[in-house]
Amino acid sequence: MTPNKDPLTLGAILYEGFELLDLYGPLEMFGNLKPQIEIITIAENAGAVSSFQGPQTVAEIDFQNCPHLDLILLPGGFGTVQELSNEAMLSFLKDRVPTAKLTMSVCSGSWLLAKAGLLDGRRATSNKAYFKMATQQSDQVEWIEEARWVEDGSIFTSSGVSAGMDMYLAVIASLFGENKAMDIANTAEYVWSQNPDNDPFHKYLNLLVSE
Amino acid sequence: MTPNKDPLTLGAILYEGFELLDLYGPLEMFGNLKPQIEIITIAENAGAVSSFQGPQTVAEIDFQNCPHLDLILLPGGFGTVQELSNEAMLSFLKDRVPTAKLTMSVCSGSWLLAKAGLLDGRRATSNKAYFKMATQQSDQVEWIEEARWVEDGSIFTSSGVSAGMDMYLAVIASLFGENKAMDIANTAEYVWSQNPDNDPFHKYLNLLVSE
What we know:
Two copies of one chain form a homodimer. The first copy, chain A, is of the alpha/beta class. Chain A has seven helices and eleven strands. In chain A, α1 packs parallel to α6 and α6 packs across α7. Chain A starts with 7 loop residues before the first strand and ends in a 24-residue tail after the last helix. Chains A and B meet through α1 and β4 of A and α1 and β4 of B.
């Protein structure tokens, strides 16, 4: 991927019960790329959206009025379970993911991509403690159990919560160069784990999911 | 500190231009302690508050109507500079920090505590790249240049941005036990740096601050 000189619109997709760090770890890393990146927050309905932890984020725009998205950020969280049967969410993803330059899910965000059929024929990963919940969404996905994140063409999927930060820095490296990504990590005083195969949490595989 | 069995109110103080991960790294760690922890978001005026990176968080309550706070979370960010001359903010901190069980600033949040005189006679740290901005707020503070975070009685101050997550996990360990803190870190697939003296970003001291 060559360095990109045009502004890119990053759409962060919100829903009730999203996990705070799934969203804000990546937004911290991308947020300091202005004016090369413009962030917009999107939900089925505009307005305040409650995280699983409680604090509310403002969704600036609804699905109907959302402009073209170059980059898509799809966080996970316990709210994902409800969204698996939300046709508005699944339709929005089916509509927008194929036209985006890159889609990047964190944690259980990949459950939604799988449910929408967008990971069929691709390699992907997800949260380790609830991994069976991912695999149950589609048997047409090559699910990778041991990975901090997985890249397959235009779709990046990360492991749980914190893993999103490492993956987003890798995406920044691919878009803007590794020096820029390292500058952002250092400025945030973040110890970036650069190896997608370094997954210290694989040992918790399916620890919290019921059979 | 003995394990606490009563619910504690954590007040997250927002202002225009706060840094996303300063706020949401800690809220991720504390947010999964419900019902032992109740999080409320506070600002000078209730309503949407823009982060430095753009996305807006809802402040549920204003300074005037804020209940007693057991725990105070004070993020940093480029917006801190403006708040250094905001008497409403400094007065709120002078009023509430002495009555809180614990106050925990991240990054440049400690500039505000120092400006309010709340760190005088204490040890404290701050963001490494802009450290002189911290020391300029008070010469009555023992500023610690090399530290991931510093604990001095009821006030914890962390280094920049990501350091807040490591410090908040340490606070959770002190309040609820180390096993609970490690559970939260593992569930978030976060590699917790438990040593407050392990500061890999000390080498960037004052790199970005003008003389």
